[in-house]
Specification:
This protein is α+β, with helices and mostly antiparallel strands. It contains 18 helices and ten strands. The strands form two sheets. Strands 3, 4, 5, 6, 7, 8, 9 and 10 form an eight-stranded mixed beta sheet that branches.
Length: 529
């Protein structure tokens, strides 16, 4: 035994959708990710899955051909008034030989046609587009093989009936019976193989989702059901009643043909209903989950036809919704959730409006010197902790953190979303920011609060916009911030803000005198808390 190398020990685990093993329906399947490495363990693990599929197809081939033989035997029995026992025996022996031959040749031909499918299934490979399309053609290929073999069988039976000296009309009737039996066998084969190979189709559709309507879609499936449930019994009845009569068993055989047709019709309709109904039920459930806000839902693609197109389109739609939410989240993180909602509501516009707002300006004391003395990574982490406090308090009080300006932040209350009491909200946020920053003991800040009319809107170009507010209230808040750095309380508000606040919030503040702010002709009354 060869010991595993270090390279083997470090290989990543075999995965399918981030797991080593996965179940496709009720089947265990292992997919490998290393395209250059054939793992014998993978082949051993996937062998039961492949064998179950092959055995299922073989059993269905036998069953479908047996159904065809039953149809053939019933119709031949109906026309046996001109067929001797020896002739009937020869025909039935040849038919039995044909049954065994068609099963053996059919399974062999299907294995040959689908050998590439069996190869990637055993190896656990992810099929390319061509291999995936070949795997999806398996039901159609099996139906074609069944039809071809039954056509050849019809020719053999026609020659046999001619050799046993049957009349031409009887030869035509027997040959027509085989054609009907072959149609039944091919139709049932298609529907049953499609059902059995569903897990294989899922694996193939993972790699090659349907992008266009198939040749054999829902319309052709319904036509096939009509053929098995309506056309077949009608043609069978025509053959029965146009054959030489004279014996009472003709009626019994006619009833038998109808019963077989009814069974075929029920089976075909049930398979078609399941093929269409279950995926649609799954889509309805998935839509309900999306409507409830679950965008992680993904429906498996189970069909290469119109249903598969619908499932693939649903997955694409949900992926688009996830991408939209991700962009919306990133947009909100950059400009603020309130600005993002306003932009989504009104679209791109370069217009502005005059709004009465309360501006809060927050700035760290001595940040320039500290940035030179502190490791850059530590300083950025410090700023992030500081901004976490600012953002939390501003947004919890209904405000907008409009700009990060290095070590400072401009916050706005009253735009773009109007507030019932922006002054009280701004004063409360300013106090809490001061208290929480002081409690952390990492930095000292100055906080200034001012109120007044400003011009608010999106400025820039159609390719690059920024929501901003411009006005005296912003300038006044910034200048009060510089003064607040030198007072013990570290927070100052203008008289205009205090006048607009509720009594409950105003009671937390007291007058701190008057100051002459740059750009103002009159002194400003200031308050602190």
């Amino acid at each position: 035994m060869v010991a595993p190398s270090d390279a083997d020990a470090t290989r990543p685990p075999l995965v399918i959708d981030e797991v080593v093993e996965a179940r496709v329906g009720s089947h265990l399947y292992v997919r490998r990710t290393d395209a250059d490495r054939l793992d014998v363990a993978n082949v051993a693990a996937n062998l039961p899955f492949v064998l179950r599929t092959l055995v299922g197809i073989s059993a269905l081939a036998v069953g479908a051909n047996v159904i065809g033989v039953i149809v053939l035997a019933l119709i031949i029995a109906a026309i046996n008034s001109r067929v001797t026992a020896h002739q009937q025996h020869v025909i039935l022996v040849v038919a039995a030989i044909l049954l065994v031959g068609t099963v053996v040749l059919g399974v062999s031909a299907a294995t040959l046609v689908q050998r590439r499918t069996l190869r990637w299934l055993l190896r656990g490979d992810r099929p390319d587009d061509e291999d995936a399309r070949r795997a999806l053609r398996m039901p159609r290929d099996m139906a074609y093989i069944a039809a071809i073999l039954w056509t050849l069988g019809a020719a053999v039976i026609a020659v046999t009936t001619a050799l046993v000296d049957l009349r031409p009309a009887t030869v035509v009737a027997v040959t027509g019976s085989i054609v009907l039996a072959g149609l039944s066998s091919a139709g049932v084969t298609y529907l049953l193989v499609e059902r059995v190979t569903g897990p294989v189709a899922k694996l193939a559709l993972e790699s090659a989702p349907p992008r266009s309507a198939p040749v054999l879609g829902v319309r052709w499936r319904l036509l096939l059901i009509w053929l098995l449930t309506s056309a077949l019994p009608i043609l069978g009845q025509i053959l029965v009643f146009t054959a030489p009569a004279g014996k009472t068993h003709v009626i019994g055989v006619s009833i038998g043909v109808c019963v077989v047709a009814l069974i075929l019709g029920a089976l075909s309709t049930a398979l078609a209903a399941r093929t269409i109904g279950l995926p649609l039920r799954g889509l309805v459930d998935a839509l309900e989950r999306v409507g409830a806000g679950d965008l992680a839902v993904r429906t498996p693609i189970e069909n290469a036809g119109e249903i598969g197109l619908l499932q693939s389109g649903f997955n694409d739609m949900v992926a688009g919704l996830r991408e939209r939410d991700r962009v919306k989240d990133l947009f909100g993180r950059h400009v603020g959730s309130a600005v993002a909602q306003e932009a989504l509501r009104s679209g791109v516009t370069l217009s502005g409006e005059v709004r009465d707002v309360v501006a809060v300006f927050v700035d760290i004391t001595g940040s320039t010197k500290r940035s030179r003395e502190t490791d850059p990574g530590e300083f950025v982490a410090l700023l992030n902790r500081f901004y976490e406090v600012v953002v939390d308090e501003v947004e919890s009080n209904g405000g907008l953190l409009n700009k990060f300006e290095g070590d400072a932040a401009l916050c706005v209350f009253g735009a773009p979303v109007q507030l019932m009491d922006p002054a009280s909200a701004a004063l409360r946020a300013a106090r809490r920011i001061r208290d929480r920053v002081s409690a952390s003991a990492e930095v000292e800040v100055g906080v200034g609060v001012a109120a007044g009319p400003v011009v608010a809107g999106q400025v820039g170009t159609e390719s690059r916009l920024e929501y901003t507010v411009i006005g005296d209230a912003v300038n006044e808040a910034a200048r009060l911030t510089e003064l607040a750095k030198d007072v013990r309380q570290h927070v100052l508000a203008s008289q205009a803000v205090i006048d607009q606040a509720r009594d409950s919030e105003r009671s937390a503040w007291h007058a701190a005198g008057e100051v002459m702010l740059r750009g103002h002709d009159l002194p400003t009354c200031i308050w602190t808390a």
